[in-house]
Amino acid sequence: MTSLTANNRIFFFTATALFVLTLALSIITEYYYLLAIPFAVLLFQTGWVSFSAIFLLLIASIPFSTEVLITESLGTDLPDEMLMLLVSVLFFFHLINNTTAFFKIIWHPLVWLVLVSFCWSAISLAFSTHIVLSVKFLLAKSWYMCAFLAATFLVNSKKDELKRIATTLALSMFVCTMIIFIRHAALGFSFAGINDAVDPFFRNHVNYSALLVCTLPVWYGYWKLFPASQKLVAVVIAILLIALFLSYARGAWLALLVAIITGWLMMKKVVIRVLMITVMVTTIAVGWLAYDDQYLRFAPDQSETIFHEDFREHLVATYEMKDLSAAERFYRWIAGVRMIPDHWLTGFGPGTFYHNYKPYAVPAFETWVSENEEHSTVHNYFLLTAIEQGIPGLVLLLLLAGSILFYAQRLYHRIKDPFYRIASFITGLIFSMILTLNLLSDLIETDKIGSLFFLCIAVLVILDKKTAGKAENV
């Protein structure tokens, strides 16, 4: 007891001295961000004692984090990106004590596909048209992988830990949704006001709706696993569905529909077959559009492609291919497809699309927002991968996506434990949503959806390892 008290005194006086020192330095230098140092040390000490506590804090921070521009060319998401770095550092320290157990669990095809994809990104970097941008991309990718893939293997050793992660994410997003819902109500639930309502937690209503729709399967899991709470969970799901509708995000609505279809396909054990057919049909369609410049037949009338503040007009414009956002997507997609042949093997380099695409754009598809002051990308993650990392990068991404859905379906039919079985099913639904959302956006590299992407992989690997040999393979 005396030893413990002495250690506490040492820690207290050390922490106090550090705080006084950084306070003095921040006042003298006027670099007030130095005050974050003692709090970072405190978080590190907490994470060393209880790694899962810091990991859950990271999960809880995802919906509430905001994008902050440090310079004109450098931005970050606070606080979750700083917590990602902290979790990554803690992971390496904890790895020293758990090396054998950790390497046993990462010996899995999904993990190796992720690593091979990352290695190919590094090869693409060597041929990048903008090396600095590609290095930034890979650095960010590395701590996403550490924080949400590798670190999850250390935290998720028991069933209760998996429950805590799912509950933390679902409840955190529910609270965030309620705040946005109330703010949106003050604006009359208008289509024009939704982006103001989601600020500062989300860049726009697309990012908000993406994370919102991806948490719905978690609540479905609660509804299935806890019959005594079904009425309460049903009310929560109803509220979230209303919020999703009022997000006015067509991509998220489509993702929900695809998830429902994917769930049915998983039950029928045909999800991979349908995915392969979808890829083939898409390839044929793109080939047909490219042949003899068929795509020029669909060039929009610039005088009619405008932003509609009324959502009903917005939907009609989408159907008639006169919506501004849809027209701008076509503009960038066409430029992106035309870029691929010039660097088909290694791509232009990770994170370089914006700096290369305009010479490949077709003026006939130009819109009022084609100046692209936001420096946004091609709005299709699969196409973006082919552009920036070449055809091999795209093939690796498709292999990874197909393998994740394959394992989700396989585990759902193999596992007998009700909780693990539902967990595999939910993971498959969430991942199908992520794939759908990324057909219309580039969200894998964002904190809101990129985190879920790697969490889905980690959960499936853990479920496969925990249940291997406990049931017959299907």
UniProtKB/TrEMBL annotation:
Quote the InterPro entries the UniProt record gives: O-antigen_ligase-rel_domated, WaaL-like
Q: Transmembrane segments in this chain: where? A: 12-34, 41-62, 82-103, 110-132, 138-157, 169-194, 230-246, 274-291, 381-407, 419-440, 446-463
UniProt KW Ubl conjugation keyword: no
Q: Where in the cell is it found?
A: Membrane
An example of a Pfam family matching this protein is Wzy_C
| Keyword set, alphabetical order | Ligase, Membrane, Transmembrane, Transmembrane helix
Membrane topology per the entry is:
Multi-pass membrane protein
Q: What is its main location?
A: membrane
Tell me where in this chain the O-antigen ligase-related domain is found: 236-398
Answer whether the UniProt record assigns the keyword Transmembrane helix to this protein: yes
Q: What GO MF annotations does this protein's record show? A: ligase activity
Protein name listed in UniProt: O-antigen ligase family protein
